[in-house]
Amino acid sequence: MSDLQIKKSSTVYDAVVVGSGAGGGMAGYVLAHAGLKVLMLEAGPYFDPRLNSSQLKFPWESPRRGASTNTRNFGDFDAAFGGWSLEGEPYTTKDGTEFEWFRSRMLGGRTNHWGRISLRMGPHDFQPKDDITEKWPITYDDVKPFYDKVDRMIGVYGTVEHLENEPDGIFLPPPAPRLNEIFIKEGAKKAGVTVIAGRGSILTEALPDNKDRGACFYCGQCGRSCKVYGDFSSSSCLVIPALKTGNLKLITNAMVREVLTDDEGQATGVSYISKDDMQEYQVSAKIVILGASAGESARLLLNSKSSAHPNGLANSSGVVGKYLHDSTGASAGGWLPQLLDRKRYNEDGVGSVHIYSPWWLDNKKLNFPRGYHIEYGGGLHMPGYGFGGGIQNMNGLIPGRNPMDAGGFGAGLKNDYRRLYGVTIGMSGRGTAIAREDNYCEIDPDVVDKFGIPVLRFHYKWAAEEINQAKHMQDTFQEIMHNMGAIAGAPAGKDTNYGLEAPGVIIHEVGTVRMGNDPKKSALNKYCQAHDCNNLFVVDAAPFVQQGDKNATWTILAMSMRTSEYILAQRKKLNV
Amino acid sequence: MNRRESLRTLGLGVVTTGLLLDASCKHPADTEKQPENIEPQSSSSAADATRTPEEIERDKKLEGEKFFNDHEMATITILADIIIPKDDKSGSASDAKVPEFIGFIVNDMPEHQTPMRGGLRWLDLQCLNRYNATFRESTSTQQLEIVNMIAYPKRAKPEMAQGVSFFNRMRDLTATGFFTSEMGVKDVGYVGNSPNQWKGVPADVLKQYGIATVWG
Asked: How far apart are CA B138 and CA A116, in angstroms?
């Protein structure tokens, strides 16, 4: 390979941002709008929802009728380029433990297909009172102004509820519940479970003073990404607008290898391999900002070893990679016989939750700490692959029918599919998993990816706290379904840890480059600036000390904005 | 951008229901260049901008593959039309090209291949032993007789268990293929996938279920 050489650019950028998802996108947006010359590196191709979304396609427009494939894990119309496994980019696990890692390689990353559920973490999530986990070095009040700005800038629907640990935002009107969801709400209420309007980053009304984004037209397909930018994706709402400032340069298909440092240990830029020409490049910047995802940012730091940083960059404490945690998740489903033969109308609604249950109980009486929220769904959705599947488990239970007649064929069966359309309901718990030192990712000493970059090896085990929580979820689901007169599927039992999904499956992984006031116990200070290297920042979910039961994205956005404004202030003071 | 402008961006003049469109092909934005500060400039010549080149290539390859032989395809067609026949509302499974869908999906999801091939052969052997003819060559009365033995899991005799499993799979594939076709979507009454203003469950439906207030 005599033609292989490292190409060094002579340009020195004010900042280089690695990754274009929620964290990287927000940093690029804030800094480029402030006039900094910013370079953004994205490991996947360019993606613009306006041009590349499968929105408004019917099932027959996919030869597999929208079924998932190895390259579209959430279905043929889903926006994500990537998935649980990437060709030539393995990851491994250790000691028989499990971890599933979803990676989107595209402009905007996983924000192109995400569920748009946009929850703020609460005061007790930042400063827990039970001493089971470390407190964040910041409080809700430190982050609140940035949540407010994100709400105004990006838009989120919801209702003001005055719940202590579920802070209200600046809300657009929420979409009304679908018919199934009205029944769910009633069933939950009888079980003592709070149900409120969902909170999602979808423009149920046009955003004031924003001419680039359209209002939602209710196709319910946010997972495909939105051609009119009616929901939040980092591509449509942050990076593409930032490109228009002329201050941001974007290089796609650029897989970053490591952060470069000088003899004093200061960051000087990054090296990357271009997937287009397979050549090696180095770029220089005064500030390096990592927004590559909790896993990839930890991997980059651990792979950036030098004499000044022998443990990996920002890792004199040894915490990088540790305290990895994903939300817990367990689900249940059933159907409502009272909705048989229901009237048809367009019930697509929005592509996020219309209703949800914020955590409603006091842990003192429970056998697990913290809590979970419940996401619900059901309605007259677009048929897709799997439609009508397993009808032999349903049509024998139609009231008045002999259960022995389950299954069947012919005109009667054909009519059963019609009668049962739109009767199903689903509910999913998403809860707090405890951040533990012993749940971690590290560099696998034996394995590299196809670019020669050492890969991550995961070690992650659930403990009693998470399993007991999952059992509580299942009990709650059964009670809600019973109260609403639903026919419930068999509940997940002890043999499956009560349906508790494997770590990583909920795709809320956080915590691998934790922040803190003590440089011996944390990698980043309270502004997500490395203790060991003051021109290095991390803006994805890696800095999270301990996640609440809230989905991570809204906090990533607020924290990245906060860090970016801190960078601007420090530049004025000539500190970075 | 308000909703009216949103729809214009989509290439839609008016809000209608059941509107068929292919916004990505008609919008002038397709020919717009990416901003110059992006590297590399993509040569967006792909036929379908929503797919990766690898996906387009794989689908083309799958379309060209043929797993079932003619006898198997004929048997699948008979079974699919027994499961979903024509009635006064819509056509049969084969009218909706369900056999073609099943032919594709076994290429896309190879886990269906052995259970389908083996199930079809199991069915033929049952018919050969009973009627001295394959399922396809049996009379329609004989075909319905054997289908009745495997179509009702709770009634089926234990020795027919493999047939029940096969028929459950065949029923699922037929239903999915039918109700995701244009004919089947219309039949089941799905009226979404078109721009609209969601104002909640219609008043007459709320009344039908005795719901006074949606937020309770």
From this structure: 55
Contact yes or no for A235/A47 (Cβ under 8 A): yes
Quickly state the pLDDT bin for B42 (edges 50, 70, 90): low
In DSSP terms, which residues pair with A104 in a beta bridge? A82
Are A407 and B171 inside 8 Å of each other by CB? Answer: yes
pLDDT digits (tens, 9 = 90+) for A397-446: 999 999 999 999 999 999 999 999 999 999 999 999 999 999 999 999 99
Q: Say if the Cβ atoms of B179 and A417 lie within 8 Å.
A: yes
The tokens for B136 are 């396809």
| Residue B175 main-chain phi, psi, to 5 deg | -65, -45
Task: Among B25, B39, B44, pick the best mutation site for testing chain A contact (most A Cβ within 10 A).
Answer: B39
Contact A513, A297 (CB under 8 A): yes
Residues 6+ apart with CB under 8 A from A211: B1
What are the pLDDT digits (tens) for A332-342?
Answer: 999 999 999 99
To which residue do tokens 């049996």 refer?
B138
User: Which of A57, A218, A380 is nearest residue B196 as measured by Cβ atoms?
Assistant: A218
Give CA–CA dist A325/A440, Å, rounded: 8
Q: Give how far B159 is from chain A: nearest CA, Å.
A: 18
φ, ψ (nearest 5 deg) of residue A286: -75, -25
The shortest C-alpha distance from A420 to chain B (Å) reads 10
Crossing angle for the helix pair B53-64 and B98-108, to the nearest 10 degrees: 120
Q: For residue A179, what is the nearest residue in chain B, using CA coordinates?
A: B201
Residues A328 and A433: beta-carbon distance below 8 Å: yes
Contact B152 A408 (CB under 8 A): yes
Taking the model in full, what pTM does it have? 0.95
Place of tokens 């490292």: A6
Q: Is the pLDDT of residue B11 over 90?
A: no
Q: Which residues of chain A have pLDDT under 70?
A: 1-2
Contacts of A533 (CB under 8 A, 6+ apart): A261, A265, A266, A267, A309, A313, A314
**Does position B172 have pLDDT exceeding 80, yes or no?**
yes
DSSP3 helix / strand / coil % (chain B, rounded to 5): 55, 0, 45
Q: So what's the pLDDT on residue B9? A: 62
Bond preceding residue A49 cis, omega within 30 of 0:
no
pLDDT value at position B8? 63
Q: Inter-chain contact A67–B182, Cβ cutoff 8 Å?
A: no
Residues of B with Cβ-Cβ distance to A249 under 8 angstroms: 37-39
Please state the ipTM of this predicted complex.
0.95
**Backbone angle region of A346, left / alpha / beta, with phi > 0 → left and psi within -120 to 50 → alpha:** beta
Q: Which two tokens stand for residue A388?
A: 């009508």
Mean pLDDT calculated for residue range B141-168: 98
Q: Given this model, what pLDDT does residue A252 score?
A: 98
Quote the DSSP letter at residue A235: I
The CA angle A404-A408-A409, to the nearest 5 degrees, is: 165
Size of the A and B interface in Cβ pairs below 8 Å: 266
